[in-house]
């Protein structure tokens, strides 16, 4: 079994103190709960879908930006590609290393900020992000980094939850229960809006192909089952409940809102939800 390797984060210029604090909160949020369980039990099909769309192969050097626990990194490495998986949250990288070791996959794991990637220009043939970079607060800064590290003629492939889809509606449901985002931060589901992503990437890319698809999720028989799973495991939901503290009325209201959201989305037998996402692939000009 091959061993994973780890790369140290390249030093960057000192950040604004408010931005540093924001990134620290993001890092802590994604360490809450058990995101690797969400990735493995609910959205495991997304990484392979993105890797196929990007046409990753054994001759490619690939970076997975905001890789989490490796939803896209591991299937990319399984093609024989040389893969770097970067994320802001060390806990998720540790989970990814363990999964890679079990699968016998060799890839590099690094702690890295999607808005300041520790790599020279044009370092990669393929730049991936699977429901990851969308959570970087400054969308244009993150998009500029995706383009910067992709070589001319290379591919940028992104999979993001849409604003109108189930996860977009989840964030809208959470909004009244969490602090307002700081000035300059943009809502994550905007990355699921094709026009928004095209504007972020601009004329630095060409041959853009975008499609909206749905992930069928049959993991939850009831809205209450979804709520309880996400309350315990999905960082943004866990953080929302933590922020409510002992306010039993607001906790109860959020409980009801999340269960209702999922119940409305469940259809068929077995009960299934369709979680909409945007899949966008472009070539670096």
UniProtKB/TrEMBL annotation:
This is Methyltransferase type 11 domain-containing protein. It comes from the Bacteria. PANTHER family: 2-METHOXY-6-POLYPRENYL-1,4-BENZOQUINOL METHYLASE, MITOCHONDRIAL (PTHR43591:SF24), METHYLTRANSFERASE (PTHR43591). CDD domains: AdoMet_MTases. Residues 64-157 form the Methyltransferase type domain.
